Every structure is written in C-alpha cells, then in structure tokens.
Amino acid sequence: MTGSFFVRERALMKVYNFLLVTFIPILAFMLIPQLNSSISSNLYSPRIIITPIFVILGSLILFFVRTRGQSIISQIKNIRRLSFIPLVPTLIYITWTCISSLLSPMAGYAWLGFPLLQFGSVMIISSIILSALYSQLVLRNIVIQTLTATTSIMLLLTILESIGLRPLASWIHSGTISYPAATVGHRQHLAGWYAIMSLAPVFIYRNRRLDPWFWVWLLSAFAGVSLCTTSSATLGVVIGLLGWFFVNIRRFKLPLLAIMAFIFMTLTLPLAANTLSSVLNTTSSNFKDYRSTSTIKTRLYMWSAAFSAALQRPFFGWGDETFAFQVFEHLKEKDAASLFLAELSLPSTYKVVHKGFTYYTFDPKGNDKQTGSLIYLRAHGIIFDEMYSRGIIGFIVFCSMILSLILYVHKRDPKSLPLFIASASPYMIYLLAWFYVPTVTPFYLIIIGLMISSIDSPLEEKTQTVVR
C-alpha cells in the first residue's frame, strides 16, 4: 500500500512539474486571434481566465502530494510547507487585498480589473500563488531551457517588429499598439518583461556551470530591453548590473563584460533596426528618445492624485484599477487641466474643460480643438499605486511582505541575498514608473519563485560558480 502511494505521489509530481514548465510558454505567447479588436481581448482576457484555473489546479496537486494522505488536522498544521515565504505576511496582504476589493466603491473593477487592463485583485492573488507554486519546482535543465527558448522566441518577434515587419498582424491588429510589442501588448510593457528576464539567469546560474543556455538567455533579454527603449526598464537593468558588479567585485570580469554588452546593445540596436527598416521600406517602430522627459510631469500629477486619494481612505484604499475614476477628482482644477495638456502635448495657452476623464480642449481663440477620454488605469508607480489601491496601511503590509521575502532568503542563504536583490531589482525599478500588466507581472512572480527554488533545491552542477 505504501509503495503504491509513493508511486502515485511521484507520478503526480511529474504531472505537477510538467504543468509548471508548460505554463511558461503558454503564458508568454497565448492569444485569441481577433482583428480590429483591443489588446485586452486579444491578450489580457485569456490570461485572466487561464491563470486562476492553473493556480487552483497546481495548488490542489501540490497540496495532495505534500500532505501525503494525512488527516485534515495534520494537513492544516503542515500547510506552511506549501509557501516559499513566511505565511503570515503573505496571508495578511492577500486578506487586505480582498477586503480592499470588497469595500471598494467599484468592487467589480477592483476584483477583475478595468476592462482595458484586467489586472485586479484576482490576478494579483493568483500571481502571488504562482510564485509559491514555482518555488516548489525542481530546477532542472528543462526549466532553464524553456525560459531561454521563451526569451529567444520573444526576441525574434521583437526584432521583426523593430524593423517594421508585423508577423502577428493577422492575429493582433489594434491601432493602439506601440511597437515592438510581440505578445505582450505594448513596447513599454514588453520592456518590463525583458527587465524581468535580464538578470534572472545570473542568480539561477550562481552555482551552475556556465553553458550556452546562460548566454542565450542573458543576451536575448539584454537585446530585448535595448530594442524597447523604455527608460525605467533600461535604468533598472543598469542598476541591477551595477549591483551584480559590486557583489562580485573580486571576480568582476563577467559582470563587467555584461555591462559592456548591454551598453553596446542599447546604443546600437535601435539605430540598426531603424536603418534596416529604411532599407526594407517598412514602418519604423516607436523607439523613444531617452532624453525626453515629457512623461515625468504627467506622473507627478498622477502620484499627487493617488496620494491625496490614499489619505482619504488610508486603511483599505479604493481598490485595484479604479484610479481612472478618481485621478481628476483628487487634483486641483488647475493641475487637472495641466495634466490633460501635458498628456495631449498641447501648449499651456489652450483651455481644458473636463468631466471625469472625458475632456474638451479649446485653442486660445476659443475654437473647439478636440475631445476624447484620458484613462489612467493605475497611478504609474508601484508605491503610489499600492497606497491608492490598498491604502497607506495596506502599503505598509505590502512592504512587510517584501521584507519577509528578503529575510527568508537571508536565513536560507545569506551569501546569496545581495545577488538576489540585484537580480530581482530591474522589474521593481521599472514598476516605480509603470504598473502591473497581465502579460508581464505573473512572469515576475514566477521568476521569483524559481529563484527561491534554486536556493531550496539541490543543484545538479556546482563545478563553476558564476558570482561567488
């Protein structure tokens, strides 16, 4: 009987590992082909359906295997084994998120997200659980190879779109896309995806022998960030690389080589893509000039509105993705008008009349210039977004959860903590100016889970150390 049980347990673990490995490319490339539709219906909607389903299925399999047929009381006592971080801070944050959504003036949006983005509390909680599930995955070569292949395929799509080709146009065609976008949705969000991948191999390979998979993964992510020309992602990778350099100061050649490679790609790849696009006579992509500071002003207004709103509801906030309905209500009329003008790139001599996020602009002579809607789904900065969504107290709970993860890593492997922070920092720095996205953020939690797995799981190869 015991032998039969363990056979079933091993079989279930194989299924569990297979599901987790398979889910990586599915999450990266899944789309519903629809012409003349929005990014949300092409890319976001499938993920808000499949991610919670996968989380529930994976949790049930893992729970059954880990509890090994124990009594209900024993299962409850051992549930801590299913979480990669201290259970209490995580459960408090999840509970706080649920209460915030329940008490939100727009609970439907808070739970499921605004229709244009769909990253409400359901996806936030699902992504946290994803991280716990992947922390239990044995980090075999197939996992690394899958991540490397996924990054490489994403880069291929990015390169093609960067030179003006549109290989996905027959499946995704929306006038709002800023290219390159691949299967993420927008150039700026794709930059965040590559920021997640950029230094993940550095941490995961810290006790492994360097092989071609490491270099392909690392350089593909570097090239992707370079082609997306998004300031916060580029800055995040630079800071992460500098952190790796100083952590590994005694063996600085590898991080120095990586820094030089990233700088070279950042300076040359967008120019090369534009040149090739001209030769092919295709539509050039939306590369950004790093010297532009136009978005900083708009973010300052959004952060001011988010903080003002958080002060009104300091305990549980307003709920996820309700910001569009509150941002202009928490700005002075002069500041609200300035925000519209800055976002629309209109001179200060124009007049703005608005009702919520709907606006009318008039030129200095009083003629009707244009009308439309300006919808800010989130506060474009994780600090103010968490304050707005879950309140100032909720933001403290959020910080305590992050701190608990850092303390966990320090407890399990103190020498790896500086590198862990450096490898995880690019996307967090990116989020200081951006927000959660269904095609991107779950990947970050998956990578965090795999990094934890590399601490807790025995490694197959330790013949060459990357960073120590």
Explain this structure.
With 468 residues, the chain is mainly alpha-helical. The chain contains 17 helices and 5 strands. Helix 7 (141-162) packs parallel to helix 10 (212-228). The longest helix has 31 residues, at 382-412. The protein starts with a helix and ends in a 12-residue tail after the last helix. Residues 458-468 have low confidence and may be disordered.
Describe the SSE topology.
Elements: H1 2-29, E1 34-35, H2 39-67, H3 72-77, H4 87-103, H5 107-112, H6 121-135, H7 141-162, E2 172-173, H8 187-198, H9 200-204, H10 212-228, H11 231-247, H12 253-280, H13 294-312, H14 333-344, E3 351-355, E4 358-362, E5 368-373, H15 382-412, H16 417-431, H17 441-456
Helix pairs in contact: 1-2, 1-7, 2-6, 4-15, 6-17, 7-10, 8-10, 8-11, 8-16, 8-17, 10-12, 11-12, 11-16, 13-14, 13-15, 15-16
How is the largest sheet built, in terms of strand order?
Answer: 3-4-5
Overall mean pLDDT stands at 88
Strand content: under 5%
Helix percentage: 55-70%
**Class based on secondary structure composition and strand pairing:** mainly alpha
**Beginning-to-end CA distance, first to last residue:** 46 Å
Regarding quaternary structure, what we see is: single chain
Care to count the β-strands?
5
Order of helices and strands: HEHHHHHHEHHHHHHHEEEHHH
Poorly predicted tracts of residues? 458-468
Task: Give the radius of gyration.
Answer: 23 Å
Number of helices: 17
Name the overall outline: globular
Summary, kept brief:
This protein has 468 residues and is mainly alpha-helical.
